[in-house]
Design goal:
single chain, alpha+beta, Double Stranded RNA Binding Domain, three-stranded antiparallel sheet, globular
Length: 84
């Protein structure tokens, strides 16, 4: 995991939740952690990491996440035992 990935992970963990994390940075972080990303229908994205599966919606038309997605991603990373 490089410095940019660490910064993205720190942004996800940060409280209060941020609403300016680019979705592309989150997808790159998942790949760096060894996760698999596959396309679903529409804007859905399936993520598989450390035996845990989740489905997220890519944000559109803006390319940044909202606070709800950040909370969900934090919960997913806790379940996948990436963060504590």
């Amino acid at each position: 995991m490089n410095r940019k990935h660490k910064r993205t992970l720190d942004s996800i963990v940060e409280k209060p939740e941020r609403s300016d994390i680019p979705w592309k940075d989150i997808e790159t972080l998942i790949g760096a952690l060894g996760g698999e990303i596959s396309e679903g229908r529409g804007s859905r994205v399936r993520i598989f990491l450390n035996g845990i599966r989740a489905v997220f919606h890519r944000p559109h038309p803006k390319r940044v996440t909202d606070k709800g997605v950040v909370k969900s991603m934090r919960r997913f990373l806790k379940e996948a035992e990436v963060i504590s």
